[in-house]
User: Fold these one by one.
Assistant:
Number 1:
Amino acid sequence: MIKVLLFAKLQEEAGVHEIELEGSGRTVQSVKEQLVQEYRLPSLETSMAAINEEFVKEEDIVSPGDTVAFIPPISGG
Amino acid sequence: MDERRFEITDQPISVEEVTRKVTRRECGAIATFIGTVRELTEGKRTLKLEYEAYKPMAVKMFAEIEREVKEKWPDAALAITHRIGVLEISDAAVVIAVSTPHRKAAYEANEYVMERIKQIVPIWKKEYWDDGTAWIGDQLEQVPYRKAVKKEGEADD
């Protein structure tokens, strides 16, 4: 299982903060595609991804047990 | 310095406390920045703000920013506290304290830290207006978001 975390606008669009997905050896991109299919998530396109709290690219591989966070444009400060 | 110099809190921030964390005998300057909640943005009146953070990653990114600061200003010490939850007008959302032996580096490093927070730290603010709400992203801040994430070894923009 992989844990997916959604924040801010993405969380509002999905209606949930946390989602569990099946699958191993899949890319961040494939996780995004599944989320778009199941939740639509218009803000996912402009979001960054992080695996285990480190920014990653879409072609990076997600392993079982990983936490994948999708980070819409930030606005701290 | 084993106390936590990088914090996300849902409580009001004590500027004194953040400043104390970087106070050292060898420093001759401490620059403290306080980011506050602004009422008017391009004529639109903010009623309040709500901040959310991906806490553990935000703290990691603060530490990453510290590594960058140490490369540029080896003698600098840094502490950052960012508040989350609902904030009213003029509340402090973030406090950054930088101490250095001489003042120029303290000013420069402090500004650098704020710029980087806006680029790589997963914190979001939601604006509440009379006529609605919105999560704010970098579209208003003019930050090249995707370019902002530097991998180790990559050069500055």
Number 2:
Amino acid sequence: MKKYLFLMITLLLSFQLFAHGPTPQKVQESLVINAPADKVWTMVKDFCNIHNWHPAVEKTTCEKKGEDTFRTLVLKSGETVYEKLRGVDDDLMKLKFEIVKSPNPFTDFNSYLIVTKGSTDNESTVQWTARFYRLYKLNPPIPEGQDDATAKAAAQAIVDSGLKGLKKTLEAN
Amino acid sequence: MYKFFIVIVIVILALGALFTMNSPPNKAFITNQGEDTVSIINLDTFQVEKRIKVGKKPLGITILKNKSIALVGNVESQDLSVIDLKKNVVIKTLALKATPLGLTHNKDETEIYVTDWFNSQIFVINSMNFEIIKKIPVGKTPSGIAFNEKYSFIVISNRDSNSVEIYTEKEMRLEKKIMVGKHPYGISTEGDYIYTANVYDDSITVINLTNWQTKEIKVGDHPYNVIKINDQLFVTNSLDDNISIIDTKTFTEILKIPTGETPENLWVDKKNNRLVISNWGSDSISIINLHDMKNIKEVKSGLQSRAFGDFILN
């Protein structure tokens, strides 16, 4: 028993040593929204009110730590996600944030949304890009549920449902 | 006499123009990690001339011009692809049983050096027969690697040890270990200096090889790599979609230039005096004119363009 305990502790410690693997995963999706870019950007950059458009989010609570802004999302599943705002660029219409803590099967999740003007004044495109790594930080064999495919599926679901929710909310107004 | 002189000048100019036109184009070899390929991009015409299938999840690259080969490190298939630069085909795959991250070579192109991310070691490989000459244990998760021609040093950045290690070419003896900023990833070296991009510190570290002094300079969000061209340093700020330009006389930032999304690595196109940057986020390369620091062109390369290393055949 002692031997196993030692092994487990060693394993746990070795996980801590590595930040992430060498191959970032990528999810990048775009959606055309029938609404003016200014209006879309106003909603996208409103970091503390993502529950207004993301269908998975029930509630958002924001807090300031020095210069930095963080938000806690309470999901409809009851789980919570803790995120850090990494930048709001009004010229590029680009919002950047990072998932600091979540129950998702990925790690080091950095993400950005870019709003661009469409072909008419009443049209815009939103692109959402996520860069992240699988949970398992060491060499293969990779345990089930900690692999690239699992990480990617989870991120894909967040991005896809979010973009659809954003479109639905903005076009309903 | 005067006329004769004019004729001579015209002949020289014409020959010069002819020479410039006929000199072969420089090419960029971009590893596209999302599609397991290397794109070969003509830097005169901006055309992707060929896409070569390599191993799984290619990342690092080094070009041995005189041997007319390029080596690509495939992190998932754990091997190296050797590309013949005359035919642009993979002529050999070297199994490493390791995770090749950074690649470089010595000045006379006799040896290739590769960092092995998970096993915290570096490989020394003979470029003639591709046999592994030596494995040297180093700090945690060695990432970037570069060769200093002035001192004949091999320098590496150990991402999870926050350190730089300097090895001698001849004996592969550890000359010095120096602490830098948090998560050093890209590294480059020239003359009396080494530069590292510290991803978690939003900074670069400058190491002076004459006195081992270091200096940290703040840059943008998540810097990935840094190179020196003339009297300036160019740093990719991967999460800011731009590069920082730093004056090496004052070590202050003088300008930021926008790039594609998530810029990672950069190298110089010497013939055209341009900077080429790989953009992971927009699957492209950005080309910047070094005369006026303006963007000339963004060229689609392939999914998740990374090209970690000296990716231009100059």
